[in-house]
Write a structure and sequence with these properties.
Blueprint: E1 2-5, H1 13-28, H2 32-55, E2 59-64, E3 69-71, E4 75-84, E5 90-99, E6 105-108, E7 114-115, E8 117-124, E9 128-138, E10 142-154, E11 161-165, E12 173-177, E13 188-193, E14 196-201, E15 207-214, E16 224-228, E17 233-241, E18 246-252, H3 265-281, E19 285-294, E20 298-305, H4 311-319, H5 330-340, E21 346-351, E22 361-365
Parallel strand pairs: 3-12, 18-19, 18-21, 21-22
Antiparallel strand pairs: 1-11, 2-4, 4-9, 5-8, 5-10, 6-7, 6-9, 10-11, 10-12, 13-14, 15-17, 16-17, 19-20
Helix pairs in contact: 1-2, 3-4
Length: 366
C-alpha cells in the first residue's frame, strides 16, 4: 500500500504559506477576528493531518467471491469487506476500482448502466466493518483483473484526504470462459440394440455390416431393414461396432496461404467448446488440440475428456488464448497432430483444414 496526500487547493504548500504570512500580518496589526479564523484554519489542518496519519493505517479491505469463474455475458456479484480498526469514525470514505478496459469486464451501476469504473462512498464508525456488494458483467474471454484499486480517506473537516493505492499483486483474477454456443443440429444418431443405444457419428459410420439373414418376425428395434428387389425378399442387417467413440477435435485459427490469424477466432473458440461439450454428453471420449503453442508446454492439448466435469479443462484452456501468442502454420500444426493423436480416433476440424486433409477427417466448421 502507498499512501499520499490527495492535493487540493487548500492543502497545497503555496496556499498554506500564504495563510501563515497573512496570519502573521493580521496578528501584527491586531485584526483579531481575521486572525482567529486563520488560526482556526491552521489548527484544523494540523488536526486533520494527525487524524489521517493515524487512521489510514487502520483501514483494511478484503475481497470475497463465491464463484470461481464465469462465462462471457454472465453477471457476477462479489464483495468488498471494508474495516475501520481505529478509535475514530471515518466519514465519506471513497472506494474506487477500475477494470482493464470495457472489453474485459464492466461494473453494473445501481441505475443499470455499465462502466469500467466503480465508486462507492462509505461511512465507517469506530472499530466496525461493512460489506459492499459489487456487480460486474463479463465482456471478454481471458484472465482479467483490476487496473486500479484505491481508497480515499478524508479528514472530518473535508480539508485533507489520503489516497491509499494498492499493488496489483493483491488484486483478484477473474477467469472468464468463452460462452457456450448452442448447436442447432445434433450431429449424432442412435442404433437401438435391445435396451441399449450405441451412438455413432453422423459424419462417419462406426458400425459395419457383418452379415444378413432372412426376416423371421424380429422386433424392428433389433434390426436394420434392407429391402432387396433382386432377391424379392426382406433381409435384416446385423451390425458390430468396429471403432470406439473416440474423437480428436482440432481447433485451428491460422488461414491457408500467407500466415495470418483469422478474424473469427472468438466464434471458432465458442463453437469448439460447444462441440466438445456435445461429444462428452453423448458419452464420447475426446482429445482437444489447439493451434496455439507455448515455450513451456508446446502445442495446447487437453486429453482424457470423458465426463462433463472435464469440459472445464477445455474452457480454461481456451480462456488463456491470446492473439499475441505463438501459432504454427496450418501444415505444421496438422503434421504434429497426425503423429500425436490417438490412432483410433475420428478427427473433427474446427477452423481451417489442411490442403491434404485425410478422407476420414471432417471439417465441421470452416
Amino acid at each position: 500500500m502507498r499512501a499520499e496526500v490527495d492535493q487540493s487547493f487548500v492543502s497545497s504548500p503555496h496556499f498554506l504559506l500564504f495563510v501563515i504570512i497573512l496570519f502573521v500580518i493580521t496578528s501584527f496589526f491586531e485584526f483579531s477576528i481575521l486572525s482567529f479564523l486563520l488560526a482556526l484554519f491552521l489548527v484544523l489542518m494540523a488536526i486533520g493531518r494527525v487524524y489521517l496519519h493515524y487512521v489510514h493505517t487502520k483501514v483494511r479491505w478484503e475481497f470475497k467471491r463465491y464463484t470461481l469463474a464465469s462465462s462471457v455475458g454472465d453477471e457476477e456479484e462479489f464483495y468488498i469487506e471494508l474495516a475501520n480498526d481505529s478509535l475514530f469514525p471515518i466519514y465519506r470514505m471513497q472506494l474506487m476500482m477500475e477494470s482493464e478496459n470495457d472489453r474485459s469486464f464492466v461494473f453494473l451501476q445501481s441505475d443499470g448502466s455499465e462502466s469500467a469504473i466503480h465508486k462507492e462512498v462509505v461511512d465507517l464508525p469506530p472499530r466496525s466493518q461493512k460489506t459492499i456488494p459489487v456487480k460486474m458483467k463479463a465482456k471478454g474471454r481471458g484472465l482479467h483483473t483490476w487496473s486500479n484499486f484505491e481508497i480515499i480517506v478524508p479528514d472530518p473537516f473535508t480539508l485533507l484526504s489520503y489516497r491509499l493505492e494498492y499493488s496489483s499483486e493483491g488484486f483478484p483474477v477473474f477467469e472468464i470462459y468463452p460462452p457456450f454456443q448452442p448447436l442447432n443440429k445434433l450431429h449424432f444418431r442412435s442404433i437401438v440394440s435391445g435396451h441399449q443405444s450405441s451412438h455413432y457419428s453422423f459424419y462417419k459410420d462406426e458400425l459395419s455390416i457383418i452379415g444378413t439373414k432372412d426376416y423371421e418376425n424380429e422386433s424392428f428395434r433389433h434390426i436394420h431393414w434392407l429391402a432387396t428387389a433382386k432377391e424379392n425378399k426382406i433381409v435384416a442387417k446385423k451390425y458390430e461396432k468396429v471403432q470406439g467413440n473416440v474423437y480428436s477435435v482440432l481447433l485451428n485459427f491460422v488461414g491457408n496461404g500467407n500466415f495470418f490469424i483469422r478474424k473469427d477466432m472468438e466464434s471458432l473458440i465458442e463453437y469448439s467448446v460447444a462441440l466438445c461439450s456435445l461429444l462428452i454428453r453423448e458419452g464420447c471420449h475426446i482429445e482437444f488440440y489447439v493451434n496455439y503453442a507455448s515455450h513451456k508446454n508446446g502445442i495446447l492439448k487437453v486429453e482424457n475428456l470423458s465426463n462433463m466435469q472435464q469440459i472445464k479443462k477445455v474452457c480454461k484452456a481456451t480462456a488463456f488464448i491470446h492473439t499475441n501468442g505463438t501459432f504454427l502454420s496450418t501444415n505444421h500444426f496438422f503434421d504434429h497432430v497426425k503423429r500425436d493423436k490417438n490412432p483410433q480416433s475420428s478427427v473433427l476440424i474446427v477452423g481451417t483444414a489442411p490442403d491434404d486433409k485425410k478422407t476420414n477427417w471432417i471439417q465441421v466448421k470452416g
